[in-house]
Amino acid sequence: MIRRAQPWLGTLVEISVEDTAGQDAVTRAFAEVARLHGLMSFHDGASDVARINRALPGDVVRVDAATWEVLRLALEIADLSGGAFDVACAPWLVERQVLPSPAPDLAYPAPRMSAAVLALEEQGLVVKRAAGWIDLGGIAKGYIVDAAVAVLEQAGATGGCVNAGGDLRAFGTMQVPVAIRAPGAPGHAARHIMLCDAALATSGSYFSAREHEGAVVSALLDARDGRPLVSSTSVSVQAPRCAVADALTKVVLATGDCTHPALAAFGATAFLIRDP
Amino acid sequence: MRYVPLIVLGACAVTAPVFATQYLSPEQAQKLMFPEADAFRAQPLTLDTAQMRQVEQLAGLPARSNQWRVVGAYKGGTLLGYMVLDDVIGKFELISYAVGLNPDASVRQVEILAYRESHGGEIRLPAWRKQFAGKSAKSGDLRIGAGINNISGATLSCTHVTDGVRRIAAIAQVALAR
What we know:
The complex is a heterodimer.
Chain A: E1 2-8, E2 11-17, H1 23-40, H2 48-54, E3 60-62, H3 65-80, H4 90-95, H5 114-117, E4 118-120, E5 125-128, H6 140-154, E6 159-164, E7 167-172, E8 176-182, E9 185-195, E10 198-203, E11 210-212, E12 215-217, E13 233-239, H7 242-255, H8 261-265, E14 269-274
Antiparallel strand pairs in A: 1-2, 2-6, 3-5, 4-5, 6-7, 7-10, 8-9, 10-13, 11-12, 13-14
Helix pairs in contact in A: 1-6, 3-7, 6-7
Chain B: H1 4-15, E1 20-22, H2 26-33, E2 39-42, E3 45-46, H3 49-59, E4 67-75, E5 78-89, E6 93-101, E7 107-117, H4 125-132, E8 150-152, H5 159-176
Antiparallel strand pairs in B: 1-7, 2-4, 3-4, 4-5, 5-6, 6-7
Helix pairs in contact in B: 3-5
């Protein structure tokens, strides 16, 4: 088996494929990861996301087809989840210093629903409707995993796995053993599952929780009211696509509902792991 | 009966730590970074005080060490670039990685060589390095993939690696660029 890892998306992205796929296929998949990282980064001032965030109400921003597709999916999941997942939650994360301000000289915009902040026009065009900041941190990792899988399959890989810091997808014929971290003891596996031709994403606050101005904050929040999600529970979602699995973990974490209708809408299932 | 403790020790050595992966040997990484090279030469680098100060200014990070493991890649005597080897220790993880650089010091590629987590236990760098000394992924001492799980969980940040890459890019600019 070929197994490589590179630092992207603020974490390690790991690609495993059968030997017959060849190193070139893996190199090409990493190149696509790098390209999409550049487009969807909150930190990189030249990214599509940064350009949307700096745009003024009324501006039209042309973005890459991939960014447009992620936004389309994000708006759909925001709608289906009643706003529990929403990419326009970034002002809260900036306020809590989880993310740096995209415009340090300006006042923070009020957190609004993403549908109020932006509208998608024809392929590739994004209209900024109101002041607001978006962060694709809750969905882009999964989307980029899917994109890497597509490159590997196109290159002829018959089976493998792409794992972006815990959001992963097994493709083709390969049976992939997956260990799910125990939220209370992340160095140990709480559960082992076998994944085949499916994606699995897990969210929990055990690595990102920290104190800010006397309160505990994390990179995870309920986008309906900004409430930080800090608990000893982790949520795992299995779905056909990793982008969907990634975003839906936040819906289940915010609502505590493992049978949330948004899951069924995407053919996904969820389970919680509680710290014993 | 007197063999039992040995067996127990052996089992522990195999099973611990839980989350660890060996991806590439340095030799495999250099071939991936410079497939056209016909020679690789170890060129250990020692920074002087002035260079260390320059590195800190450029990277905005402590230079950390004056000794660096550098390999030059050549084709027919012409320099193609360098690979710099490094390890970083995070709160829970120890990561060995390699940075491929062009002769002008721009970063060409970053590959993770090995990854290991430790929660609660102290990670000691010399012990970590020793476990890979003289071993390559090909030799069979360390099997890639076999029996190693993928991990799903909250995202562990790799800030230490990205900082490390920035530091090495600065070192290359100060001491290697042509």
